[in-house]
Amino acid sequence: MKKTLLAVAMASAVLAIPSHAQDAAPAATPAPAPATPAAPPKLPEIMKPETTATLRAAQKEWQVAVGKEVNVAKMLELYTKFQFSPDLQPKLKEIFGTERPFAIQRVAGGPKGQINYVGGLAPYTYLQGNGTDFSWTEMALKLSTDKAGRALNTDSTWPSLMVTRPGGSLSINDIGMTTRAVYGADNVGYGTALIKVGSVVVRDSAPGSSEIKEAMRFEGIEGKSDVRRRGAMAEIIYSNSVKAIVFGDERVERSNFAMHITNVPVKALADLTRQLRDQQGADMENEAEKKRTLKTMTDFGKRMVTAGATLFIDDISAAYHGNVASLKGRVSFQKVVEADFSNFNALMKKIVAHFEVRVPVALVRDVARVFAGKSVDPSLPDAAKQIDAGADAVVSMVVGKTVSGGFGVVVQDELRTVIDIKDGKVTVNGKAIEVPAGVLNSLKAKPAPQAVPQPAPQPAQ
């Protein structure tokens, strides 16, 4: 359900900021916390095919209008006069309540040399007719650039956006997004993109009941991306955090994910920007476009690896009952050459990784109590004792086997271990681990697409 709403928001943003939002998508996507004990309910159909087709058509019409223009000031001015085709206008009006969604206009004022625009989207309810509807309050948008057309600053606020369906809903509240980017001669944008969301709330009703109750809530979501140039190389920084995750009677106080990638060739970023720009202007079917995008991103990933890029996991952590479990580490490759990408085993042997994991014993006990409580009848007179005994048994098993097996140590009531990967070998707390052949074969048969953090907003060209 979360992905559905985000897809709608992103599709809308494409119309709002002349194609810049596509590359800002990671920053505009408030990622949920790492694995939670429950997941929002899935919907059979979020956007009907006609809605998706209309949004794609609108995006393509704007891309054709932009052509090869790279000057932000000229693109913004062009958008103030841009009209969608007569065939598309009534379809857009059905979805957004207007034929020109996210219209902007130039306004006076501001620092000398700065060109300012304001715009937004009026409140509206879109009834799709497939059981899933969308409604939102007024969205306000401010944009500015300089006379050279090399800077882009955006500020937007959106009080609420809601998806409703029979028996449930999802709402995103207090949305704010800010971007600050400066584009170089190679049209790569360097700067930051920040999004804050007050809350994301999932509501559902039990089978056969008309009463809708809150099923899950995310509070205080914040996502940030930052791209910095350092000579011939660039650094990509990404983080997201959630202040609280509530599901049923349980509450995770916070979750955090922060990482950065160093030694990213600026030339590779420039080529990526150009290739995605050229693809935007190409007339391709959906599947062909997906395949081309995957190839473009895979090639970019290969160039980062061969250039010696290193992924640093600065912080993956979550707090429960005041106890924090965390992971930190780094991943890189040793002297990879082009031939390695066609030799899975050779590539795996060049991975160099180091991870540090810390889990408070108290956290293991608290989680164990939750699961033990689900298997004990609360009406029993000794229910509390049974739950405690079950939790203690789990702690003894997890901590005992980890320590006695040499896979970790307990320091200050915290279970700690170090995982290293080098020369195709894996060690946990210094002890060699044999990776099952089935795991390697599954990776070899179905390699996962590389997840490459996106730069700050790039201009469509």
From TrEMBL:
Pfam families reported for this sequence: DUF945
Annotated keywords: Signal
Signal keyword on record: yes
Coiled coil, from the record: none
Residues annotated as signal peptide: 1-21
Biased composition (Pro residues): 29-43
Region (Disordered): 25-44
Official protein name in the record: DUF945 family protein
Lineage: Bacteria, Pseudomonadati, Pseudomonadota, Betaproteobacteria, Burkholderiales
